[in-house]
From TrEMBL:
Protein name according to UniProt: Capsule polysaccharide biosynthesis protein
Family recorded in the similarity comment: Belongs to the lcsJ thioesterase family.
Top-level taxon of the source organism: Eukaryota
Organism: Parachaetomium inaequale
SUPFAM superfamilies noted in UniProt: Thioesterase/thiol ester dehydrase-isomerase
Keywords linked to the UniProt accession: Membrane, Transmembrane, Transmembrane helix
UniProt-annotated stretches for the region Disordered: 275-300
Transmembrane parts of this sequence: 48-72
Length: 345
């Protein structure tokens, strides 16, 4: 998702899309669809046309502009269908998006090409971020009025709100076959003073169900797994055996060229409990002073301590991912030569 996309979505793309749909519907009223369909299925060359439609239906997500449709569908869907409020525990919950490998995504090894995972990640992350943080984005975007974001001198920051994708890492464990269904389970992993980290698991379709939904029911659920308790408890299920790939992405929020602290966006969405002391931006790390969180009750209230404990737990993985930014310094411009310059790259 490029910086500025969301800044243009509401005032530009949404009205244009509505106008285009209205015009298309108006024109469709003047078409004799019965005659068109009769000719399509019975006229000369019908076999080729039917096979072409069948092929396009199997590969729709690989067609031109299909990626754009999938992305903007996620925006529009959550603008229209998102609950007005979400419980604070939803901050680290998964967003589940289903998909299927098209024939055009299949490589010469007869499985989903590794490069196509990143287009799916765009869609999955868009669903997650729009659903969770959507209410906070207009608040941060209208910063002149709401004054949530200030620079180091205390001045109110001006500029258009946008989101930038900083990096993506993907680890592949198993293959996904042609036309095989799968699910993308995305959630917020952690954040620091600049980046919001998101983890996405590609999961075998239909093998895993959540214990509940943060709103209206959106599919079957399962019972909670009992933790191991000596010889009496039930052994927890290893859900990782259904994971075929795992990706970590990092987003940056911007007002113009100014980097917005991720905690401000999460807080504007109503998903951060109040934190004592310097709040969520204090301390040397810029993410709050490192108080001792003490013993936490897994079933207790989602207070600031539980949120911070989850953020720290995810940051243990995110920090290793962030450290890879340093590999930029390894580029020496071919100081000792290069292998060659090859065509059709």
């Amino acid at each position: 998702m490029a910086v500025g996309t969301l800044a243009l979505f509401y005032p530009v793309f949404l009205p244009m899309s509505a106008a285009a749909l209205a015009y298309a519907g108006h024109r469709a009223l003047y078409v004799d669809w019965r005659m068109v369909l009769t000719h399509f299925f019975t006229g000369p060359g019908r076999t080729s046309r039917i096979l072409l439609v069948f092929f396009l239906a199997l590969n729709w997500k690989s067609l031109p502009l299909a990626w754009t449709v999938r992305i903007f569908h996620s925006f529009i869907y959550h603008v229209l269908r998102r609950p007005k409020t979400l419980p604070q525990r939803a901050l680290f919950h998964h967003s589940v998006t289903s998909s299927r490998t098209s024939l055009l995504e299949t490589d010469y090894n007869i499985h989903k090409s590794n490069s196509t995972y990143f287009a799916d990640l765009d869609v999955s992350r868009s669903h997650l971020v729009t659903h969770l943080l959507g209410p906070g984005m207009p608040i941060i975007g209208d910063n002149a009025k709401n004054q949530r974001v200030r620079d180091k001198d205390g001045n109110v920051v001006q500029g258009s709100f946008g989101i930038g994708l900083g990096a993506v890492f993907c680890s592949f464990r198993k293959e996904i076959g042609p036309l095989q269904g799968y699910e993308m389970w995305s959630r917020i992993l952690s954040w620091d003073r600049k980046w919001l980290y998101i983890v996405t698991h590609f999961v075998v379709k239909g093998k895993v169900r959540p214990t509940g939904w943060d709103g209206r029911r959106m599919g079957p659920t399962r019972d909670k797994i009992q933790k191991v308790d000596g010889n009496n408890g039930e052994e927890a299920v290893d859900f990782s055996k259904y994971v075929v790939a795992t990706a970590v992405s990092k987003y940056v929020f911007k007002l113009g060229r100014f980097t917005v602290h991720p905690a401000l966006v999460v807080e504007a969405a109503g998903l951060l409990p109040e934190r004592p002391g310097e709040g969520w931006k204090g301390g040397e790390t810029g993410t709050g002073t490192p108080e001792d969180l003490g013993d936490l009750d897994d079933e207790g209230e989602w207070d600031w301590k539980r949120v911070e404990a989850e953020r720290r737990r995810g940051l243990q993985y995110a920090e290793h991912f962030a450290a890879l930014d340093g590999t930029n310094s390894l580029f020496d411009g071919g100081e000792d030569g290069a292998i060659g310059n090859f065509p059709l790259g």
